[in-house]
């Protein structure tokens, strides 16, 4: 089976598994005949002042902005790129800042601009400002600027505003505000008003139940994805947080090869959710529930909503949250795997890039570690990477990558920068770009030779990786076959450690090799000296 067919098969299987998992957490909001009304971000800010203040400066809130000070572009350049034939004008001309009704995007990568064709009828201007290069470039969505591809309401609005009314083509708030993620707030606001200034625990529970907590990854997936609504729009029409995204949106999948590199990484922007659905993170809860030794304590790492409940409980215990602590989750009540909110805090609670919950290495190793696991060896990636002690019979050996100053870490390989249609984006597939892939996908930079420039070619590096992993797997299989009832427990631990790390020697080849050598000696798999 070739690599592309393999990815298509795996993608199809995991897509089904991902949506099976997501369906467990669906609330009936989007299926109601009359969903609640949107109340607007200012209503939310009346009670949630600190959150609102932080959110006001976030990339989400500013993704549509009518403040002229938000325009980053240089209008002293790029006249040839900015040429537009405006309605009612005799000849094409370069559009200026005075033609801009809204900026689209905060300029993290690029910034686009809207022109008001008629009263509250907008069209995307056909040039964008590339913030990374400081230059104008054409925005070619169709052959003609009059094409519906440039129509704001047809092609873009759903992911840049809150509370869009398709029939009226109007929206509640500019930007991605509170109700874009938490759903229409009418019921929540009414419950809070009915309860008054000093709600009891029961009333608090009712107030909180009337709004979506936005832990469901579909909440992010409504915009951080590519797909098609039933009426052909590139954003989900009729989706409300808490509902099933699949009811209103058909995701681009791996068999639609024009959207993907052959490695399984997306080659277009805004495909984080498409990539995540086909990752091991998406199916982490399903895999846990299916495991023979599954235990509720495992939810700490296998479930995003478990992490959310734990934060709420800690806030109650610290006196920072009123009301009763939520009930702990069980394997039956947990709904989501490792999802967006497991790693990101959208309310901007720190200064970390991409609103990460922790510094990247700490975030990854909070789960990819054996620390705190009481029943043997389990996912000891951190311990292998750092070369920490596992058995007394083998001296610990820190990995060369770990010891290198400013060297690679988890995100170097598992959150690779991948070229997309508008620059570079961090992949959310979590799969490294292997050297062998770049032989045919020449636009990609693999995660190894980017640093190991001394290696003559990606093919040679791929051969080295394949040899290490094949040899490690063969030695593991041989050792496992030689284990008996008399085998010392430390040997089993050593084999479990190498296997549980999951990299088959790549995270720390020297330590893996030393552990297998010791196991082979104890199992009598090496011939006596002199033979």
Main attributes of the structure:
two-stranded antiparallel sheet; alpha+beta; Butyryl-CoA Dehydrogenase, subunit A, domain 3; 20 helices; disordered N terminus
Blueprint (SSEs and pairs):
Elements lengths: L2 H21 L17 H7 L1 H8 L7 E2 L17 E2 L8 E2 L7 E3 L5 E9 L2 E4 L2 E4 L4 E4 L13 H4 L5 E2 L10 E2 L3 H5 L3 H10 L5 H9 L7 H5 L5 E2 L21 E2 L20 H6 L6 H7 L8 H4 L1 H14 L22 H4 L16 H6 L15 H6 L13 H4 L6 H5 L2 E4 L2 E4 L31 H25 L6 H13 L7 H15 L8
Task: Summarize the structure in words.
This protein is 34% helix and 9% strand. Helix 2 (41-47) packs across helix 3 (49-56), helix 18 (458-482) runs parallel beside helix 20 and helix 19 (489-501) runs antiparallel to helix 20 (509-523). The chain is globular. It has 20 helices and 14 strands. Strands 1, 4, 5, 6, 7 and 8 form a six-stranded antiparallel beta sheet that branches. The protein has helices at 3-23, 41-47, 49-56, 152-155, 178-182, 186-195, 201-209, 217-221, 272-277, 284-290, 299-302, 304-317, 340-343, 360-365, 381-386, 400-403, 410-414, 458-482, 489-501, 509-523, and strands at residues 64-65, 83-84, 93-94, 102-104, 110-118, 121-124, 127-130, 135-138, 161-162, 173-174, 227-228, 250-251, 417-420, 423-426. The longest helix has 25 residues, at 458-482. It has 531 residues and is an alpha+beta fold. Residues 1-32 have low confidence and may be disordered.
What average pLDDT do the residues reach?
91
Give the distance, in angstroms, between the N- and C-terminal Cα atoms.
42 Å
Q: Radius of gyration, rounded?
A: 26 Å
Strand content: 5-15%
CATH topology of the domain at 401-523: Butyryl-CoA Dehydrogenase, subunit A, domain 3
Helix content: 25-40%
Count of DSSP-assigned helices: 20
Shape by Cα distribution: globular
Question: Structural class of the helices, strands and pairings?
Answer: alpha+beta
What can be said about the biggest beta sheet?
A: 6 strands, antiparallel
Number of DSSP E strands: 14
Name given to the CATH architecture of the domain at 401-523: Up-down Bundle
What is the highest CATH level, the class of the domain at 401-523?
Answer: Mainly Alpha
């Amino acid at each position: 089976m070739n690599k592309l067919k393999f990815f298509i098969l795996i993608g199809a299987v995991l897509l089904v598994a991902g949506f099976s998992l997501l369906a467990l957490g669906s609330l009936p909001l989007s299926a109601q005949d009359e969903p609640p009304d949107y109340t607007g971000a200012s209503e939310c800010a009346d009670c949630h002042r600190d959150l609102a203040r932080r959110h006001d400066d976030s990339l989400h809130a500013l993704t549509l902005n009518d403040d002229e000070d938000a325009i980053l572009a240089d209008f002293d350049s790029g006249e040839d790129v900015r040429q537009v034939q405006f309605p009612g004008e005799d000849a094409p001309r370069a559009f200026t800042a005075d033609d801009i009704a809204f900026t689209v995007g905060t300029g993290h990568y690029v910034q686009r601009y809207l022109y008001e064709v008629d009263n509250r009828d907008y069209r995307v201007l056909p040039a964008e400002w590339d913030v990374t290069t400081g230059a104008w470039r054409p925005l070619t969505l169709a052959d003609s600027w009059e094409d519906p591809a440039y129509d704001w309401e047809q092609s873009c609005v759903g992911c840049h505003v809150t509370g869009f009314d398709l029939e009226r083509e109007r929206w509640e708030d500019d930007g991605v505000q509170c109700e874009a993620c938490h759903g229409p707030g009418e019921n929540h606001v009414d419950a809070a008003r009915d309860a008054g200034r000093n709600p009891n625990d029961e009333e608090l529970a009712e107030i909180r139940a009337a709004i979506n907590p936005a832990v469901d990854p579909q909440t992010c997936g409504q915009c951080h994805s590519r797909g098609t609504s039933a009426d052909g729009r590139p954003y989900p029409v009729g989706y409300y947080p808490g509902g099933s995204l699949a009811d209103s949106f058909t995701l681009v999948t791996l068999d639609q090869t024009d959207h993907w590199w052959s490695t399984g990484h997306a080659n277009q922007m805004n495909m984080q959710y498409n990539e995540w659905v086909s990752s091991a993170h998406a199916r982490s809860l399903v895999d846990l529930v299916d495991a023979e030794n599954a235990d509720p304590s495992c939810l700490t790492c296998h479930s995003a909503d478990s992490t959310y409940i734990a934060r709420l409980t800690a806030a109650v215990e610290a006196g920072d949250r009123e009301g009763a602590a939520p009930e702990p989750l069980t394997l039956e009540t947990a709904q989501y795997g490792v999802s967006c909110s497991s790693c990101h805090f959208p309310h901007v609670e720190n200064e970390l890039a991409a609103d990460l919950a922790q510094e990247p290495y700490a975030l990854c190793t909070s789960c990819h570690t054996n620390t705190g696991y009481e029943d043997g060896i389990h996912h000891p990636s951190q311990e292998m990477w750092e070369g920490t002690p596992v058995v007394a019979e083998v001296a610990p050996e820190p990995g060369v990558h770990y010891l290198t100053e400013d060297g690679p870490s988890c995100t170097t390989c598992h959150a690779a920068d991948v070229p997309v249609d508008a620059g570079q984006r961090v992949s959310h597939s979590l799969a490294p770009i292997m050297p062998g892939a770049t032989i045919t996908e020449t636009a990609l930079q693999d995660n190894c030779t980017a640093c190991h420039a001394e290696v003559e070619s990606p093919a040679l590096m791929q051969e080295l990786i394949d040899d290490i992993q094949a040899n490690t797997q063969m030695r593991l299989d041989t050792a496992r076959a030689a284990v008996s009832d008399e085998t010392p427990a430390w040997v089993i631990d050593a084999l479990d450690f190498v296997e549980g790390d999951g990299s088959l020697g790549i995270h720390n080849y020297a330590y893996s090799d030393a552990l297998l050598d010791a196991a082979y000696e104890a199992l009598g798999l090496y011939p006596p000296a002199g033979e």
